[in-house]
Design brief:
With 460 residues, the chain is mostly helical. It is 62% helix and 0% strand. It is globular and about 70 Å long.
Length: 460
């Protein structure tokens, strides 16, 4: 008994701040970081999203992705066209998923409950958090290498163990939930993402192509190129390397915090909201990211691009389910307060808290790419599977989207609308569930009931 009491005391000390009177089940669904963003905290306008994506585009892995195309045999202009096409398409997906957060001011972990179920959403959240940890490690390792180059450029021969210093489609709503209006998160992202990443990629493409002339071989990593400058140059080159490496290190730090640390922290909050908030989740992300030996993913351009493809296989299926659920099945209609309710009669509880339609579609989206993925890592597979895998994100996204829509047509889900209806702006405060899982009428006082008559015009 004494040991159990000690454990309870320790658990209470580790718990994050929560509203009093909530049961254990309710504490698994909500904390401050998971609640809808209050009106006074919705401060992001269009230029905030422009600045966010410009900052996110300026980093070394953007350079590496584009320069790896040169290694693969593309010319500089072919590679740049690929960059523009790829990031323009990515921006469309970002805007589709981000609009949900900008409308209802809830993040990806809570949005996932509508599609996958109250408890079924934990797996997609864990999936995204794990990917963020991996990307955190990669970005941190790259940033650490920048610091290493800075040290080398100042003190010749001084070696430092940088190995100890060792990444956004599905969770854009974690950021767009802070938007003042949904349209603030549309064009600002749709234009800035391809533009910002294209500029950084263009630099990487040109430099990688130029390295072929200078060193008789294309160098895909700017860090390797800077290292060559130190080895072959004098004091002027060393000073230049120091300044460039410093800029890269700051860029990696900003990108890692915004794109990986905050994302992982937000996702982990949903996994264990009683004990994890965004800050604690970010610390966990840092530990996991550094412990998974991120430098192995950067050992070659082929290793790096293989990892990126594998990354797409899983997240594309999650994105397909969420987009299908919000845009095609529910027509923009969500009952936000029900996303924090674990009652078995709730519209998002489905079967024991897990939505079987969503998981069937999710698995279908993965299966379409599994054989091709095996071929990408060295197994001999039919050529048709290889062709499909070359379009892995699109195949996974479209298959999961189509399967989910078809299943919901055959077996309809509750809380849907027969016309387009976004009512996020109509909900100012959220009711809190009581111990029995129902909503306290006194707490719910002042909360506007979501009614299908409350139709807000869609304004892009």
């Amino acid at each position: 008994m004494a040991l159990r009491q000690r454990f309870r005391n320790l658990a209470d000390k580790l718990a994050v701040d929560a509203e009093p009177g909530l049961s254990t089940t309710q504490l698994m669904l909500v904390n401050h970081d998971l609640k809808p963003v209050e009106r006074e905290r919705r401060q992001w306008g269009p230029w905030n999203f422009v600045a966010f994506w410009i900052a996110d585009s300026f980093n070394i892995n953007t350079w590496m992705i584009s320069s790896s195309m040169i290694i693969a045999g593309l010319s500089w202009w072919q590679a740049w066209i690929c960059v523009w096409l790829g990031y323009s398409i990515s921006a469309c997906f970002i805007v589709m998923t981000g609009r949900i957060g900008a409308t209802y001011h809830i993040g990806f972990p809570v949005i996932g409950r509508a599609s996958f179920g109250i408890w079924g959403s934990l797996w997609p959240v864990f999936n995204r958090a794990a990917m963020a940890c991996i990307w955190y490690g990669v970005q941190a390792y790259i940033g650490g290498t920048c610091v290493y180059l800075m040290i080398r450029s100042i003190w010749n021969g001084v070696m430092s163990s940088i190995a100890n210093f060792a990444t956004l489609v599905v969770n854009d709503s974690d950021f767009t939930r802070f938007a003042r209006k949904p349209r603030d998160a549309v064009w600002s992202q749709l234009l800035t993402i391809p533009l910002g990443f294209a500029i950084t990629s263009f630099i990487g493409i040109i430099v990688s192509s130029s390295s072929t002339v200078i060193y008789d071989q294309p160098i895909w990593s700017p860090l390797d190129l800077l290292g060559r400058f130190i080895d072959d140059g004098g004091s002027g080159q060393r000073f230049g390397v120091f300044v460039i490496a410093l800029a890269f290190a700051l860029a990696q730090l900003g990108t890692n915090i915004a794109a990986n640390s905050v994302s992982a922290g937000t996702d982990m909050t949903a996994l264990l909201p009683r004990y994890i908030n965004i800050r604690r989740g970010s610390y966990i992300c840092a530990v996991v990211g550094l412990a998974m030996c991120p430098y192995n993913l950067l050992s070659s351009s082929n290793q790096f691009t293989t990892y990126l493809s594998a990354y797409s296989v899983f997240l594309s299926s999650i994105a397909g389910v969420i987009v299908s659920d919000y845009y095609l099945v529910r027509r923009g209609y969500l009952e936000t307060k029900e996303l924090y309710d674990s009652r078995s009669t709730g519209p998002y509880f489905y079967t024991w808290g897990v939505h079987w339609r969503a998981y069937a579609a999710y698995i279908a989206g993965i299966l379409i790419n599994v054989v091709g993925f095996a071929g990408a890592v060295g197994t001999k597979v039919p050529m048709g599977a290889t062709y499909i895998y070359r379009l892995n994100f699109f195949c996974g996204f479209l298959v999961s989207l189509g399967v989910y829509w078809a299943l919901c047509k055959v077996s309809p889900v509750p809380a849907t609308s027969d016309r387009w209806m976004e009512v996020g702006e109509d909900l100012e405060d959220e009711a809190q569930p009581t111990d029995d899982g129902s909503y306290d009428e006194e707490r719910e006082a002042g909360v506007k009931t979501l009614d299908k008559k409350d139709v807000r015009e869609v304004n892009f």
